[in-house]
Design a protein that fits this description.
Blueprint (H helix, E strand, L loop, with lengths): L1 H18 L1 H8 L4 E5 L2 E4 L2 E3 L3 E5 L4 E4 L7 E3 L5 E3 L2 E3 L10 E9 L2 E3 L2 E3 L3 E9 L2 E3 L2 E2 L13 E4 L5 E3 L2 E3 L3 E5 L5 E3 L2 E3 L3 E6 L5 E3 L2 E3 L3 E6 L5 E3 L2 E3 L7 E6 L5 E3 L2 E3 L3 E6 L9 E4 L2 E3 L3 E6 L5 E4 L2 E3 L3 E5 L10 E3 L2 E2 L17 E5 L3 H4 L11 H12 L6 E6 L7
Parallel strand pairs: 1-4, 2-5, 3-6, 4-7, 5-8, 6-9, 7-10, 8-11, 9-12, 10-13, 11-14, 12-15, 13-16, 14-17, 15-18, 16-19, 17-20, 18-21, 19-22, 20-23, 21-24, 22-25, 23-26, 24-27, 25-28, 26-29, 27-30, 28-31, 29-32, 30-33, 31-34, 32-35, 33-36, 34-37, 35-38
Antiparallel strand pairs: 39-40
Length: about 400
């Protein structure tokens, strides 16, 4: 009996010793140390309070949080985390339980990691001049609204976020964070693939987002460039490609928005007086609505875009939105009905957009159930042929292009 008790006690002691080995190694390592971990399973809930590197030297290096708290907590500048599988965070939203949480840091790197079964993926707060790259991130198997954010920037500036893949998380958010480059990321089956709030001077380029509720949504932000992004098949009746709400001095250029309910959504933008937004050379293709205006939105420059295959080109859901006060010129409209006698690829007459029978469902959402049906299509045709109510003038393109 005593021998059995001794063996059990030794097993518990040895198991506890090995469970804390990684944290003890971190605590005992000098600043600037490089810890190269061999393949194996390591206990998580580790805390890094000094500059050092943790690198998996081969595949299969797993750090497991065992369902409690955050798996790796970084509280120092100059930290590198690379080539790891990080899994098993807790599930407490109020604690922001995450695979990797990095705070009060700078010039750090998190790269080539797989982060799975973690409520939040990578949580970055008050961290500057760092790199987050080539990570695969997925959340816990929960309903969409109950998952955590795959990647979250909070008061973090001048970082490079590139080539990450977020699948079945909630959002990627950039809040109160400025000067970040967000490039070549991929998002699928999330809610907001990319959501900005009070963020400025960010550069968003060459990302691919598909099968999310919203592709990219910019709110209360300014001085940002989004170029070369592809947003495809945003899901749901209000699935959105790119949204602008209360934003100023934005440039959207060379993006492709395809197969969404709403291609580009503009709400009270530009927001600041005497500013503009530039929406240029984008491909807005095969959406239910190409451009949707909400609230007063004037002084946008909408130029050189391809607007093709959409059910509705322009939607204005608010009376007095002043859509005609935007500078709209040189776009290709597939339903332009004018001519080009001098063959200069510019229509001889402006392309004018009116709201006909579609105002029935724009101002009465219950009618939208029939949107796209033969009945509404027939009403629209008859309204254009012989208007039974005064059509609403929305905007005109002074120099529409006839060829792509």
């Amino acid at each position: 009996m005593m021998l059995r008790l001794f063996v059990v006690c030794c097993f518990i002691f040895i198991n506890s010793l090995f469970a804390n080995l990684l944290q003890e190694t971190i605590d005992n390592a000098p600043e600037g140390a490089i810890l190269k971990l061999p393949k194996g399973l390591y206990k998580g809930s580790i805390v890094i309070n000094k500059p050092l590197s943790i690198i998996g030297k081969e595949e299969g290096v797993i750090i497991d949080g065992e369902g409690i708290g955050t798996v790796i907590q970084v509280n120092s500048p100059y930290v590198t985390i690379k080539n790891l599988i990080v899994q098993g965070s807790g599930d407490r939203h109020e604690n922001l339980d995450a695979g990797i949480k990095i705070t009060n840091s700078k010039q750090s790197e998190i790269s080539n990691c797989i982060i799975r079964d973690s409520l939040f993926g990578i949580d970055v707060s008050m961290t500057n001049n760092s790199i987050i790259s080539n990570n695969y991130i997925t959340s816990k198997n929960l309903a969409l609204g109950l998952r955590g954010d795959g990647l979250r920037l909070w008061y973090s500036n001048d970082n490079i976020i590139t080539k990450n893949k977020l699948v079945k998380s909630r959002d990627m958010v950039v809040w109160y964070s400025h000067g970040n480059e967000i490039s070549e990321n991929f998002g699928e089956y999330n809610r907001y693939s990319l959501h900005f709030m009070y963020a400025g001077k960010n550069y968003v380029k060459n990302n691919i987002y598909q099968y999310n509720s919203v592709g990219i949504f910019f709110m209360y932000s300014k001085d940002t460039i989004a170029v070369g992004n592809v947003i495809k098949s945003s899901l749901g009746a209000t699935g959105m490609g790119i949204g602008l709400k209360d934003v100023s001095n934005f440039t959207l250029k060379d993006n492709t928005v395809i197969y969404c309910a709403q291609g580009v959504y503009i709400d009270r933008s530009p927001f600041e007086p005497d500013t503009k937004n530039w929406i240029e050379n984008n491909k807005i293709l095969y959406n239910s609505e190409a451009v949707h205006f909400h609230s007063i939105s004037e002084n946008n420059v909408i130029k050189g875009n391809t607007i093709l295959g959409n059910i509705e080109d322009i939607v204005n859901d608010s009376r007095g939105t002043k859509t005609d006060k935007n500078e709209i010129v040189g776009n290709y409209w597939d339903n332009y009905q004018g001519f080009d006698k001098n063959q200069d690829n510019i229509g001889d007459t402006p392309h004018r957009v009116y709201q006909y029978a579609d105002q029935l469902w724009v101002y009465n959402p219950s009618v939208k159930f029939f949107y796209g049906s033969p009945v509404i299509s027939l009403l629209s045709f008859l309204a254009k042929l012989a208007p039974f109510s005064e059509p609403i003038f929305l905007l005109q393109d002074e120099k529409p292009k006839l060829k792509l």
